[in-house]
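Example record

One chain of 380 residues, shown exactly as stored in the release files.
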Amino acid sequence: MSRKFLVALGSAALALSLAACSGGGAGSGDDTSDKKPGDLTIGVSMPTQTSERWIADGNAVKSKLEAKGYKVDLQYAGDDIPTQSQQVDQMITQGADVLVIAAIDGTALSSQLQAAASAKIPVISYDRLIRGSKDVDFYVSFDNYKVGVAQGTALLVGLGLLNKDGSKGTAKGPFNIELFAGSLDDNNTQYFFGGAMDTLKPFVDAGTLKVKSKQTTPEQVATLRWQQETAQKRMENLLTSSYNDGSKVDGVLSPYDGISRGIITALQNAGYGKGAKKLPVVTGQDAEIASIKLINDGVQSSTVFKDTRLLADQAVNAAEAFLQKKEPQANDTKTYNNGVKVVPAYLLPIATVYKDDIKATLIDSGYWTAEEVAAGQAKK
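Predicted structure tokens for this chain:
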């Protein structure tokens, strides 16, 4: 799945929902450029509190905005689309001056965005691109195709087919692998999976990697809402259906640490990690503390670190630019077509974390402490 295909996918026409416009107060077209921060409110809509990553994101955006004096209305939607729609509606009617939205479903907020546009409230799409609406003003994220490339590369490194410097490894294969993707209603899923599959395809074509289940399409390998329990159940089903002949799984492409932990639980319950039946290489994303402990303990192989502190900084920078009636700084104005428009974006760098990277990348940067890594829990 190439980057060209992904851009074409993003260009597909999507129907727009129409809704009556509402809104009043400060967000309804008032000039905010000469107002004090304490007179302005930023609505921040996050998808869920079931993932420590989104809790950290919400807290980071809120604290950075409040440190500058702004009022912040932070809401979590509990992975429920109607709840998020209602919360965003409420932010608009209560006069938010800017909206920062990490959407549960990238296509489900068109009417809310239309209402925001009518009230002249700028909308910043946070990490998950909102699709099917012309009323998305800016996008802050990471280079999500490169995240997928990094995950595919980490799987190859873990199997010994590549070295960390990209040179050819000593392993020959063939290796049995299985593939997992995120939730199909999250636009990032296509980029993650596309980047990973572009990286793995030459090895699959050569027969060095074999997907024993033959489940290789995004629809076959997707994990609704990125749920750990859903991933665990699917891995259990794969082991029962495709590995009941005594063969073993050597590697699993996982797009997110929560999914990785579900996969690992299923594997451990099936006897992997005991005696000669070693655990497969399992990738991940988000550097969640529970998975960093697993990596440190040699259970999970790797994760892709996306420094959400930097993402929060860019969301704040974009919000301030809009409040000052300026255009936020973008470093990508071509890639992210949401089906209606190309949304200007600011993309941040990523880093792959193996066991020997934990100290330099995560501990020394202050993202996690050594005590948190050892415990596998974040301090309150």
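Notes: Residues 1-28 have pLDDT under 50 and may be disordered.
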